[in-house]
């Protein structure tokens, strides 16, 4: 329907790509890709050459690792910047299936709400976000989101 301007996902499973999402920020990376830790270039795992180990970035020579952001590892700066830019432009954020406790992602709907934007939470259980959300769609997203789309149509 061309309503969503951006999807920010914490999932690393590539399902948004497989579903056809093109305006997509994978804040915790994508397990089907590798990434240079210096210049943040990304490639599909199978498209990268592992002849020499450890793999070096053909762009800058930096170390190439799995794209997934591991526990304690910083989110790549350009990815984080893209998230903040999308959040700054957002007038309505739909937050789906998250405990809303992992920062910085949990700060995005807070920023939208503080700016006077509309926040919709779709979640089976209450979270901290429920208190600031304008609308809470209580239930599994597999049920609530199709209903939301039906209402929009
Ligand atoms: Zn590089």
TrEMBL record:
GO terms for molecular function: histone deacetylase activity, NAD-dependent; metal ion binding; NAD+ binding. Keywords: Metal-binding, NAD, Transferase, Zinc. Zn(2+) binds at residues 36, 39, 57, 60. This is NAD-dependent protein deacylase. Residues 1-153 form the Deacetylase sirtuin-type domain. InterPro entries: DHS-like_NAD/FAD-binding_dom, NAD-dep_sirtuin_deacylases, Sirtuin, Ssirtuin_cat_dom. The active site is at 28 (proton acceptor).
